[in-house]
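Example (one chain per record):
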Amino acid sequence: MTLDRLIRLGLTQYEARAYLALVRRDGSTPGEVATLAGVPRPRIYDVLHSLVAKGLAVERPGHTAKYLAAPPAAAMERLVAAHRQQMESLESDARSVTDELTPAFQEGQRHDSPLDYIEVIRDPERIAKRFVELEGLVAREMLVFSKSPTALRIDRNTAGIELAATHTLRSLYEFSLLADPVTRDGVQRFVKAGEQARFVPELPMKLALIDERTVMFALPDPVAGTDDLTTVIIEHPALAKLLKIAFEAVWETGVSVEEAHRHLGLPYRESC
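Predicted structure:
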């Protein structure tokens, strides 16, 4: 529609209507334009003056002033020229901003945040999801301290079963976890899949070490207690190597899953 195209070219709706009215007659008074274009009379003079200023109309002096439309080809060229000028101005501004910001951007790329390698999670669902994601990233081995509370139930950790069957997975559990039948069966499933498991009376914290590169550990809130955990993930090989030394020391004190069952007076079915 011509009216819509004129508006897209930069005219207001009243200006577009007035120009279309002028095109159809060889000179019109403001009152005639207002009637033909459907523009309120109190606004018509401002509208006509704006068209004149934009080069889309001319005023014919006389006892009663009349207005004539500029030829469409010339009028459209003026509208397009105005857009070109605006675009050139925008492009100039964009080049100036680019020149001003590029040095700062390049400088910023050379400075990493000292905490970029640390991730902190408090939502239990997000903790469980992130743990599964890390299981999927293991290239060689994963070492685990497992104790309550757990964000991911062992019977739902299908990614862990696959990891136990395809990679080195060594887990240290607290004896207390075997008191829960679901956890007890889950541990036996993991051992059958290939996990190396040992048990100790108590572990200092929940911990996972991936490929001597990534550390995931849970810190209980000292006020709220062990059920309110903040989990921290750190990409730091030096820290991971240090914690592996601690893991190996605790591992040497652990007993097998069969011995743990016997210690607690629980039946152990090796074929599970």
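Caption: The mean pLDDT is 89.
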